[in-house]
Amino acid sequence: MNPSRIRPANTLALSPTCLSNPPPNSSRTVASLFLPPLQIRSQIFIKPLALHFHLRSSPKWEKPIPRSSPSGVLSADVFARYCRLRGYNAIYICGTDEYGTATETKAMEEKCSPKEICDKYHAIHKEVYNWFGISFDEFGRTSTPQQTEVCQAIFHKLWENKWLTEKTMEQLYCDTCKRFLADRLVEGTCPTLGCDYDSARGDQCEKCGKLLNPTELKDPKCKVCRNTPRLQETNHLFLELPALSGKLEEYINTMSVAGGWSQNAIQTTHAWLKEGLKSRCITRDLKWGVPVPHDKYKDKVFYVWFDAPIGYVSITACYTPEWEKWWKNPENVELYQFMGKDNVPFHTVMFPSTLLGTDESWTLMKTISVTEYLNYEAGKFSKSKGIGVFGNDAKDTKIPAEVWRYYLLSNRPEVSDTLFTWTDLQAKLNSELLNNLGNFINRVLSFIAKPAGSGYGSIIPDVQNAESHQLTKNLGETVGKLVDQYLDAMEKVKLKQGLKTAMSISSEGNAYLQESQFWKLYKEDPSSCSIVIKTSAGLVFLLANLLEPFMPSFAVEVLRQLSLSADAHISLCDEKGDTEKAKRPWDFLPSGHKIGKPEPVFKEMKDEDVEFFRQKFAGSQSDRIEKAEAEAKIAEKLKSTKISEGNAKKQKVKSIGAAKPKPSEAEISVSRLDIRVGLIKKVQKHPDADSLYVEEIDIGEELPRTVVSGLVKFIPLEEMQDRKVCVLCNLKPATMRGIKSQAMVLAASNDDHTKVELVDPPASAKIGESVTFPGYSGEPDNMLNAKSKVWEKLQIDLHTDAELTACYKDVPFTTSAGICKVTSIVNGAIRLIKYDFPSSVKGSCIRFVLAIGCVLLHETIRKAKVLQSWKPVYKFQIKVVRSTSFSPKMGGKKIHVDKAMLLEPGDGSLPLPLREVTATVQILSTV
Questions:
Q1: Which domain of life does this protein belong to (predicted)?
Q2: Coil vs helix vs strand at 873
Q3: CATH number, residue 366
């Protein structure tokens, strides 16, 4: 039987338009075959004169629903979409690998036929992949007539070429079930030294990854009846890998270099070769599978790892009658494969050997991209154990598919294992998607949508000679380089790097907006403002295109807000010059184009959401299902339970009262802080305070500002002189020991305040330039309102990270020259260093007798009775936290004490009840 004669009855006649005469450098076809609800073996992409991908992810049969990280599936989808963006001729085909022991085992568990179980899970997989936005051209399955024909045709070629041998072997036989046990119908203890995993399958140990034969297991048990099987002789067919090793090694040595195989794929493949190839059994004693077309073996079927990869071919045959132009066209088609590392040898050794043995001109894999493991919270994702978040779980969270796609791809374990945690998902959503990307897009489009007089009435403004605007020209050059880096990463299938580079363009856009101060330009220099806004709108369009492979629904939504059709894409095709156009983002959208209504693209994930998901998805999937079923039963019982009328009224009143939501405080943007790069021109000690410096700091204004800082104990005088610092410039001036401080420097300190370091801008940062936070839009306040406590509320999230970067939440302090850092304090709080207590006061107890009536706070403190010799000459605010008789509502930066809260100096009045209140305060820290 010749596979070339296969003409499937139900095919889609969508043969690639450029197959007969593919244009140079543009005909990349992506055919992706996903095999399984049962087992997703791999995915394929094909490019005539370019690619044919095999992409693989493998949800095993025990838990046949794809986990939330369908690594091969998602990676294949990104690459397929990218190929289309580049103008390559690409098809993406996927299917479910439905034959094998796993299917029979699951059918036994669910008491149905293998066909019924395949129909069920094929539909589930299709639904999950649709929700994830996977763009298959064909989602097929291996239980088709085409699969039988292609598989048997390849078998006949191998038989004719004498690459198959017959062997008698001992196999485990279950007397209770009256059948030979295929590998996955046996479980036992792994024989590998140091492993001893007691639930190893007969084909592979999930714990150590060792490939096994069922007879190698210690204490084997029949998975169906749990009885101990016995050895019995049976005949099987073997593929002679040792005899094919010459052809195979030549292929591996050539293609691993030409195709840029990932290092883990090379290592795994060479480990197999180093151990020495062995004959591999390709038949099984099962009923569900492709029958072996030989009278002697008519009661046997093909082994799943012989049969399943052939599904890539048969599903392509279901997609197009011209399937041979993809699969038997190695001169014009490149095959790419994506998979987890445990499936590598089947695709670098078994499948290529099978095709090489036919002596036909098959398209063999060129590039393989292999991922390591994705671990879940405290342990490894496990399909067989149900540990982790599965595809249907991800859908049930109501977290948009785009957020899942972004998180899984930015966390793609390309080099080493990575960890999935709910807090990390929250951080990436809030910091990277919401505060960086989402805020940039919303900031630009919202400004354009403002009515004339404050915006552009939703019309893209007209601009002249944008290249003359130096800031815009610099941005264009930077973005052009980033687009080149993006294309380079994607061509090399470095998907994680490609995503990171695209997101960098968003960060550049935020910095560009901030540095341009477009809100001032709008009134002071309208033509420059138009250039900035039209350029920024072009960046929005560019980002929608570059991120479309990663977040397709996001791209559609952004294009909708731009009033563009969903297919209004840049091709990024070199011949069309689109990559060069990226250097001129002001040209992407035409002047006069009317945009749609801007809306937030992403929604914040709260801490309570994280805790909810962590608890909901704890344990195994089966445990969660059992819990949900039990809760459903209880709920059903409660529905049928009669409640007395009186109790019913009480319950109703209680539930109505409980339903009242608490008003949430509006989030304050860090952009309200006017932080600038300053240069200390002069510094000296305060004449009346040993702990204070008085500095004159140039912040780009006509005259330097006078600043008082409590840094004497921490930083020598000589280190302060001629030093660049970060200065908070919009605080209300405050008199400190007789000298008015017109700003404050920012510094980081450790927990006990024994170490303090200034936040240092980059050496090349411009004096007077704003320190920005990419993703946060808005203008700084002229002066922070002390009563609103803007600084105090934002300060809580100012810190240094593990890399010594100064951050607001996870967003770095950013200048045109780079990020701001400290010298050595890791995870320290960033504060305003205004004052310091004398060391003799720390740890002492102070009793304050607060005055009656409403008085200024510093007056209250001066009337205080002090138990120690220290006299309070500083202005402080006191908030008693353990007193029923006194609880004024005050803001401010809290300094933790034993029985009260000590807050930063302030000049606001303190409302007191009309009675005397006494509070004892244990001072634990002083800044």
A1: Eukaryota
A2: coil
A3: 3.40.50.620
